[in-house]
């Protein structure tokens, strides 16, 4: 009995010491993998790269951009933002990523590869290979040169946050490419050249984006004011459609299914009016909307009756439009 009384705290102390050693020294397998990433991505001409210091000491959990779990000592976050530099000599040609370099990191939760001038991925070594990393939730690929093909390579990932802003997505996007990303909560596609979404039923297919809360499509080339592709995004709270090419009349019934929407950004378009007879007063409409930005459009009708039903509205932006004369505020 006496031995058992002391065995538990002794075992706990040993575990704490082991955990401390793991955190300080990191796992050798993961240290080796990080050095392989450095070899693959490091540009010796870019002296500001955080990778320059990798390998200077054995404790990889303290390396720039690397974070580890306090208990297991395993790498759970790798921040490689701007490690290659953006203004790379064109004569060096396009650079393609080998995503399998990240497979050793079994507890990886967040991976940031932004601002690295990545053109794509090595054949058969794309992001689909990371489907085994079931803890990977956040993937940041902004400020690169990925084209539309990147979307199909993301199948099988359990992401909650996906950023593809400032890339080279163009033209029509097939919404079925997002079908497997059923856990996604945030999708950032701003600053591309997307014109529309090819779909017959929106995101209403089983296993689609019914958990998505934030969708940023700002600064694209979306010109079709028919927003039927938004159907099925039943959890959406924040929608950014600013700085696109919406013109003339916008049919507001397309927003009816977004009953949880809190923020709607439509500024910097060329919207003239809203085609609606009853505003947002239809059942299941935007009665939770708190922020509506319609600034910098061409709205000239001072009758704001289309705002009826927005009972939760707290912020309304209408500056830099063509509103003139008396304004009927009773709407």
UniProtKB/TrEMBL annotation:
Keyword Signal: yes
Transmembrane recorded as keyword: yes
Transmembrane segments: none
Topology versus the membrane: Single-pass membrane protein; Single-pass type I membrane protein
Limits of the Leucine-rich repeat-containing N-terminal plant-type domain: 28-69
Cited PROSITE patterns: LRR, PROKAR_LIPOPROTEIN
Gene Ontology CC entries for this record: plasma membrane
Pfam families xrefs: LRR_1, LRR_8, LRRNT_2
Matching InterPro entries: Leu-rich_rpt, Leu-rich_rpt_typical-subtyp, LRR_dom_sf, LRR_N_plant-typ
Compartments, record wording: Cell membrane; Membrane
Chief place where the protein resides: membrane
Signal sequence residues: 1-25
Keywords, sorted A to Z: Glycoprotein, Leucine-rich repeat, Membrane, Receptor, Repeat, Signal, Transmembrane, Transmembrane helix
Superkingdom assignment: Eukaryota
Protein name, UniProt field: Leucine-rich repeat-containing N-terminal plant-type domain-containing protein
Source species taxonomy: Eukaryota, Viridiplantae, Streptophyta, Embryophyta, Tracheophyta
